[in-house]
Task: inverse folding
């Protein structure tokens, strides 16, 4: 890989020039083939090892120069340059952020497998004391999208090596998706731009600080929850708290909704559907002795079951109306659709499991936990089968595991090598499978 990227000194992957990472440890070397794992075909392990420092440098550059959702112009340009240098032809999405790049295969197999990475950062300050700390005030890669982007870039470059030798048995589409962290998100934009045309299955990974580096988490079925939002406004006649009978007591009405509606929802939906409604904001009035005429509350709704996800908007609106009816208040409910649940296809999960066992050894493949967080990878799974896996990025032996969406979030960079290996294996396994 000849790199088109000129890395700043602060982004160098070598501990010789950058000093120590958070916690005092030096940057980890590119990992070799682990015990129990199988070498990649075509001497790719040796090829990747020779480029590992560059890939880690790319990750650090991205981490130091994060871009918010819908503003990922420089990130898109960086990825496009690297792919073009490798002889590929990336296609930037219509808004100028995110891109799609096809790697042509060889032989008679015209099946296409897609691999997706999200590229945007979060509106959080970076509080780590590391040389590659964010240089953009109030913005940082606290969800690992810099790792996702780097892994997919390395995967694409590795698969391009196979394609040049006529050893890629089918086509692979790389999807570098913008705007995963906002609603509306970037996945529908990719789909509208033809990102799934001709695709038989799609795969992705996500950083998991709860798993040690070298581990991979996989599961069949629900992986993440649908994530929606509810805006509630109550209106009524205000007045003096000494005479509540002459008013519509909106604070009382709002409290009834906040307490009763989630409890009623639990009794109206199959508990196996994994429905959770939690209010995160409520406001009504200012003075202690005045009943307000307007009150507002906001809640998130998370659902693991696709059918239940389609049913809950109407059900929640009815439950709110029923609870409010006896209070005399008028309710306005605005239900905002977010993302569907990620439900891993059983065939795709089987391919990922085999790929993970080959990439890191079966003893390091674990069952991934279900997350009630949202992930817009789910939009792709509404159209084609696929699966998402968890990539361990936690330091081995750590007694306290961090979490994503924290300003101190960081990764053990050896995870990049493991991620590339498992994504290469996933693409090859899916192309060889008769399931798609």
Result:
């Amino acid at each position: 890989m000849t790199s088109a990227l000129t890395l700043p000194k602060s982004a160098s992957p070598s501990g010789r020039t950058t000093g120590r990472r958070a916690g005092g440890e030096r940057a980890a070397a590119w990992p070799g083939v682990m015990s129990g794992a199988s070498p990649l075909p075509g001497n790719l392990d040796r090829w990747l090892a020779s480029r590992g420092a560059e890939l880690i440098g790319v990750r650090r550059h991205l981490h130091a120069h994060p871009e918010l959702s819908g503003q990922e112009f420089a990130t898109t340009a960086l990825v496009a340059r690297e792919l073009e240098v490798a002889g590929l032809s990336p296609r930037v999405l219509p808004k100028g952020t995110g891109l799609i790049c096809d790697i042509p295969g060889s032989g008679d197999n015209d099946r296409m497998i897609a691999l997706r990475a999200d590229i945007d950062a979060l509106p959080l300050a970076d509080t780590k004391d590391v040389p590659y700390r964010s240089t953009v005030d109030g913005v940082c890669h606290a969800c690992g999208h810099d790792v996702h982007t780097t892994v997919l870039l390395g995967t694409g470059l590795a698969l391009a090596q196979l394609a040049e030798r006529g050893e890629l048995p089918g086509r692979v589409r790389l999807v570098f998706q913008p705007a995963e962290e906002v609603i509306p998100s970037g996945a529908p934009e990719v789909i509208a731009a033809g990102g799934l045309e001709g695709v038989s299955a799609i795969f992705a990974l996500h950083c998991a600080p709860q798993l040690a580096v070298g581990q991979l988490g996989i599961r069949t079925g629900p992986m993440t929850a649908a994530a929606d939002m509810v805006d509630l406004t109550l209106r009524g006649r205000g007045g003096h708290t000494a005479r509540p009978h002459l008013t519509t007591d909106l604070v009382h009405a709002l409290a009834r909704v906040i307490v009763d509606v989630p409890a009623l929802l639990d009794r109206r939906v199959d508990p196996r559907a994994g429905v959770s409604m939690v209010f995160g904001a409520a406001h009504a009035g200012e003075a202690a002795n005045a009943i307000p005429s307007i009150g507002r509350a906001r809640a998130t709704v998370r659902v693991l079951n696709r059918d239940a996800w389609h049913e809950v908007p109407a059900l929640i609106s009815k439950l709110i109306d029923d609870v409010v009816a006896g209070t005399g208040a008028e309710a306005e409910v605005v239900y905002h659709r977010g993302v569907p649940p990620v439900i891993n296809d059983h065939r795709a999960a089987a391919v990922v499991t085999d790929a993970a066992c080959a990439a890191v050894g079966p003893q390091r493949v674990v069952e991934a936990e279900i997350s009630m967080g949202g992930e817009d990878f789910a939009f792709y799974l509404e159209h084609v089968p696929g699966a998402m896996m968890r990539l361990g990025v936690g330091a081995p032996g750590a007694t306290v595991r961090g979490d994503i969406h924290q300003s101190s979030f960081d990764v053990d960079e050896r995870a990049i090598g493991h991620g590339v290996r498992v994504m290469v294996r996933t693409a090859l396994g899916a192309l060889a499978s008769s399931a798609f």
Remarks:
- The first helix runs from residue 15 to 18.
- Residues 212 and 398 are 8 Å apart (CA to CA).
- The chain has ten helices and 16 strands.
- The longest strand covers residues 199-212.
